[in-house]
Specification:
It catalyses: adenosine(1518)/adenosine(1519) in 16S rRNA + 4 S-adenosyl-L-methionine = N(6)-dimethyladenosine(1518)/N(6)-dimethyladenosine(1519) in 16S rRNA + 4 S-adenosyl-L-homocysteine + 4 H(+). The chain has about 280 residues and is of the alpha/beta class. It has 2 domains: about 200 residues, Rossmann fold (3-Layer(aba) Sandwich), CATH 3.40.50.150; about 60 residues, rRNA adenine dimethylase, C-terminal domain (Helicase, Ruva Protein, domain 3), CATH 1.10.8.100. The protein is built from 12 helices and 9 strands. The protein has a 7-stranded mixed sheet. The protein has a two-stranded antiparallel sheet with strand order 1-8. Helix 6 runs parallel beside helix 8 and helix 9 packs across helix 12. The termini are far apart. Bound molecules: S-adenosylmethionine (SAM). The site of S-adenosylmethionine has 23 residues, from strand 1, helix 3 and strand 3.
Length: about 280
């Protein structure tokens, strides 16, 4: 069966669909953005695509034109019959009615090899979704996601920038990041109040840095950025080492305890983590 483009405005009208602000519903209207997302994700016929939040299926159809299969996860009860009616007959299409924060992606992925996630994410859950997708070790090759501009800038930030924080370290620990394009509010219906960015996260085979204790790394990172203005000496106190041992750890690491977390590269976080681990 040939794929027919979904026209967002026409479907919204046809089904008298009411947008839900609380579900972060801003549907895409702009063909050039759809094309840039599909190209940016480098979708090809071997790919099994998972899309979070298909809306009325506008991006879904473009993905189906290039991919082997597209499985969508949608939470909104009102969108399920629309998607079933409009896309249900396509073999490549599968719909899961659930909350993306609750699904076990391993069950969806199964034995699939070339798995890519593509989504215009609902902005209210962007960060928890990204954290879930990365930390749970699912075998995604890449995540190509449209997110709020400021969040994309935080993900892509380098040390010594205002935007550099715990999210930058977390994402860069697992992925290479690449900004695909900026998208302005006019490209959506209804228009969001913020600018958006399409960003691609390519999962690394191994995390970028090796540490003896991953949980300790993220505890140090979180403590450091929760207390951004504090020195590393003060923020790492929460880890629970005696003063003497903490001093030993900093001496061992060669990192000045008067520095702040926002100045540390990922490699330096790894050195500090292992030094603290060894002096515990
Ligand atoms: N993909 C469509 C597009 O680009 O036009 C819609 C994108 S809209 C920004 C976000 C979509 O995510 C909506 O369809 C919304 O109902 C859905 N959604 C919101 N929260 C969700 C959740 N926790 N799990 C799955 N889908 C969710």
């Amino acid at each position: 069966m040939d794929l027919i483009d979904v026209k967002t405005k026409e479907l919204v009208k046809k089904y008298n669909f009411r947008f839900s602000k609380s579900l972060g519903q801003n549907f895409l209207l702009d063909d050039s953005v759809l094309e840039d997302i599909v190209n940016g994700a480098d979708v090809n016929e071997e790919d099994f695509i998972i899309e979070i939040g298909p809306g009325v299926g506008t991006l879904t159809v473009q993905l189906m034109k290039r991919a082997k299969k597209v499985t969508c996860i949608e939470l909104d009860n009102d969108l399920i019959p629309i998607l079933e009616q409009e896309l249900g007959e396509y073999q490549k299409f599968q719909l899961i009615h659930n909350d993306a924060l609750k699904v076990d992606f391993n069950e969806i992925i199964g034995e699939e090899q070339s798995v890519k996630l593509v989504a215009n994410l609902p902005y209210y859950v962007t960060t928890p979704i990204i954290i879930k997708l990365l930390k749970q070790g699912y075998k995604f090759k890449s995540l190509t996601i449209m997110i709020q501009k400021e969040v994309a800038e935080r993900i892509d930030a380098e040390p010594n920038c205002k935007a550099y924080g715990a999210l930058s370290v977390l994402v860069q620990y697992y992925c290479n990041t690449k900004i695909i394009r900026k998208v302005s509010p006019e490209s959506f219906m209804p228009r969001p109040k913020v600018d958006s960015i399409v960003i691609r996260l390519d999962r690394l085979e191994e995390p970028r840095i090796k540490v003896k204790d991953e949980k300790l790394l993220f505890d140090i990172v979180r403590a450091g950025f929760n207390m951004r203005r504090k020195t590393l000496w003060n923020s790492t106190k929460v880890i629970g080492l005696s003063k003497e041992n903490l001093q030993k750890a900093f001496d061992k690491s060669g990192i000045d305890p008067k520095r702040r977390a926002e100045t540390l590269t990922l490699e330096e976080f790894a050195i500090l983590t292992d030094s603290i681990y060894e002096c515990k």
